[in-house]
Amino acid sequence: MNLKMLPGAVLLAFSATVYGQTDTLSPEDSLDNERLSRMISLTEVVIRSDLNVPKFIDLVKKDTTFYKAFRSLHLLGYSAWNDIRIRDKKGKVKASLQSKIRQNREKGCRTMDVLDETTTGNFYDDDRNYNYYTAELYAGLFFTRGKICGENNTVKGIELGPRGQSGIEKHKQQLKMLFFNPGKRIPGIPFIGDKIDIFDPDRAQYYDFLIDLGEYEGQSCYIFSIKTKTNLSGSEKNSIVIDSMITWFNAKTMEVMARNYDMSYHAGVYDFDVHMEVQLTRFGKYLVPKTIRYIGTWDVIFKKRERGLFTATLFDFKEED
Asked: What is the Cα Rg of the chain in Å?
């Protein structure tokens, strides 16, 4: 993977692993889940709920529901406010975009209309290409060019991975793996691919795991927290990339309600530090994102440090007539 591609993979590395598939476990998986379950702390209220912790871990590791929520966006019309800002080293905004778009879904295809847009600084070059990688990746994931047809939100049988891909397509697959499967090793990302695997029992020793019961926006939920231990040595800190991941699950349906994600790494040729938040909502039969927030900084050798933040607010969902 080209180092230029790395920040994009990092940019949206905020997550996924929840409730989902219930495939038959291999003996090795069963042993790993049992070992992990002994490393997880439970609050008193969760202990009284008699939660099956090994099964919980397996469902978390195999989840596809978060991925499905984002794929469902391709089947709906919706409006979105987009706010992208690039800051200088003093924290001042040097380039930005604020826009409102409308995605249309008609006859099995989706298109996008830009209803309003304001930019500042050198957000675009003279040919209206993006001058900043944060903006380029945001646009690639949330903006639609032309007409796209024949999509669905099926996730069963789909394997995320860069096998057989090259260039930007390979990068997109690596990005999806980081985005939706942070518990798995990702091939082709220099220095950090095997450090993403937080559910590997050997790497899990660097984390504190906690399952709690609480509320999120008035709904009862399970709260699954993964945070690095506070007493790690320097070499141990260099062995991890994910700093924390907190997920809220609806206690009745086990759907993801929200997820916060922090990730950082410092190497000789690059470093990054990012924070992501995603809030989901229910629209009819669909679970979809409603708010996505990102703030982060990254630096790659031979490129200037980029400090970016964005907020995407999705609303006014509509099914195709």
From this structure: 20
